[in-house]
Structures are given as C-alpha cells and as structure tokens.
C-alpha cells in the first residue's frame, strides 16, 4: 500500500483549452497519456493517488464528465483536492460531489481522509501572487497593497478551513498528518506563513503543494525539509507526469 500525489492535470476533454503553455510546450504534449503510463507503472489497485487541484478546465460538472472518466480509469483510490481553476467545485457542494461519485472518486474539502493511521488534510490554500513592482535591477520594490489585503482575507479563510480539518482528525484520535495545499505555502517573498506555522503546530510530516507551473515558477516556495516538515511540489509538469511517492 503506497500513497502518491500529483497536481494540475488541467484536463480539457470537453472544454476549451485556456493555457498557452499547454498548446506550445513539449511537456504538455499528450500529457494525459504520459500520466496514464506513469500511473499504470507505479500504482497498484491498493494504492492511493491524491490529485492536488486544477483537475479540469470545465466550468461546470457537465463539462468535466470525460475528465472525471479519465481520472476514474487510473489505478487505485483517487482523492481530489480543490484548485483555483476547479470551477465545477463549489466548496459548499463537496458532499454532493461525494454522493455523486461514491465508490469512484473522493473529494476532500473540509474534514480529512483516512490513509492507514494518517489523516490527510487538505485545502486550496492561498498566497499573494502580486502584482509586484520591480526596480531597475529587477528586485521587488513594492506591490499592489489592495490586492495584498484581499489575498490576506482569503489566506485567513483557508487557514480556518485547514485548522477545522486538523481538529476533526485530532478529535478522532489521529496523530499523524499529511497536509495538502493547491497553492504554495509561501509566496516569493516569504520564508514562512500561517500555513507553515500550522503544519509545525500540528506536527504534519509533509506539506504537498502544486500550482507552480513552468521552470520559472518551480522555486517560488519551499522545497525540502524545514523545521521538521518536508515540503514537496507536485505540479504535473514539474514532475514530468510521474506521481510523487508520499508514503
Ligand atoms: Fe493552480
């Protein structure tokens, strides 16, 4: 039994493709087939695959059906968490999605998922992504303060959701945690955040995140061990479509 993770599939079987990189960059060419090959090589039916957000470009459920059929056809148990592009997934409708796909897909938002004696906790996360203003040498000299204040509100809401998930798991007796975020835990200026502090507070062993695409973004946040927590980026193009083994 093993736990794997990958993110940012950005499937588009029934919906218009919206990312230029997916049309032009080699890593995205037939990426569904590459991912399928990797999954079929690595995963057995007893394994679990966490898909860390940005599953589909479809704006509503009916535009995601084929994308979900593709995900369901991958081996193992599949747990989906929310990304910023998952328009089909209103946070309040997670229960409905879980009823609709019962026995096929699990949608994790609020609460936690059990994996052996681990609790998997997940939320979309958030961080201020700019706009940043650069000086003549290309160093960050300032940023849009209104946008930063707005981002801060979303960060607080996401932290509250995450804390509720940790607390629910702890109440049920879990002491081992893996934390999943779609957004990176810190932005390009931060070395810590409410998310890193919460991971440390609850003793999460790992923080897994996605969202950072393209080589210029791969080092936007923390990679590797920091204060006893292991941080990993699992966006599909970073992983070259090979799911990362988490446990
Ligand atoms: Fe994203």
What does this structure look like?
This protein has 247 residues and is an alpha/beta fold. It has helices at residues 20-24, 31-42, 65-72, 94-100, 145-171, 194-202; strands at 3-6, 48-52, 77-81, 106-108, 113-115, 118-123, 132-134, 140-143, 176-181, 206-209, 224-226, 229-233, 244-245. Helix 5 runs parallel beside helix 6 (194-202). The mean pLDDT is 96. Bound molecules: fe (ii) ion. Fe (ii) ion (FE2) is lined by residues 54, 83-85, 182, 211.
Q: Percentage of helical residues?
A: 25-40%
Termini gap: 9 Å
Q: Unreliable segments (pLDDT under 50, ≥5 consecutive)?
A: none
Number of helices: 6
- Strand arrangement, largest sheet? 5-6-9-10-12-11
Reported for the largest beta sheet, the result is: 6 strands, mixed
Return the average pLDDT rounded to an integer: 96
Order of helices and strands: EHHEHEHEEEEEHEHEEEE
Strand element count: 13
Strand-residue proportion: 15-25%
Tell me which ligands are bound: fe (ii) ion
Task: Write down the overall geometry.
Answer: globular
Radius of gyration: 18 Å
Class derived from helix and strand content: alpha/beta
Topology:
Blueprint: E1 3-6, H1 20-24, H2 31-42, E2 48-52, H3 65-72, E3 77-81, H4 94-100, E4 106-108, E5 113-115, E6 118-123, E7 132-134, E8 140-143, H5 145-171, E9 176-181, H6 194-202, E10 206-209, E11 224-226, E12 229-233, E13 244-245
Parallel strand pairs: 1-2, 2-3, 3-4, 6-9, 9-10, 10-12
Antiparallel strand pairs: 1-13, 5-6, 7-8, 11-12
Helix pairs in contact: 5-6
This protein binds fe (ii) ion.
């Amino acid at each position: 039994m093993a736990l794997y993770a990958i993110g940012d599939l950005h499937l588009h079987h029934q919906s218009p493709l919206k990312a230029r990189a997916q049309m032009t960059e080699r890593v995205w060419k037939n990426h569904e087939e590459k991912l399928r090959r990797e999954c079929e090589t690595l995963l057995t039916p007893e394994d679990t695959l966490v898909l860390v957000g940005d599953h589909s470009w479809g704006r509503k459920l009916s535009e995601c059906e084929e994308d979900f059929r593709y995900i369901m056809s991958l081996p193992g148990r599949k747990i989906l968490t929310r990304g910023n592009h998952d328009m089909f997934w209103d946070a309040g409708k997670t229960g409905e999605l879980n009823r609709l796909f019962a026995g096929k897909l699990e949608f994790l938002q609020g609460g936690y998922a059990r994996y052996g004696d681990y609790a998997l906790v997940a939320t979309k996360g958030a961080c201020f992504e700019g706009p940043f203003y650069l000086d003549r040498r290309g160093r960050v000299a300032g940023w849009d303060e209104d946008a930063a204040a707005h981002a801060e509100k979303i960060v607080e809401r996401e932290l509250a959701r995450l804390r509720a998930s940790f607390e629910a798991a702890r109440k049920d007796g879990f002491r081992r945690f893996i934390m999943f975020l779609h957004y990176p835990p810190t932005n390009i200026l931060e070395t810590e955040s409410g998310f890193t502090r919460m991971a440390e507070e609850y003793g999460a062993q790992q923080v897994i995140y996605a969202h950072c695409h393209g080589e210029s973004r791969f080092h936007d946040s923390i990679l590797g061990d920091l204060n006893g927590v292991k941080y990993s980026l699992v966006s599909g193009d970073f992983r070259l479509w090979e799911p990362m083994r988490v446990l």
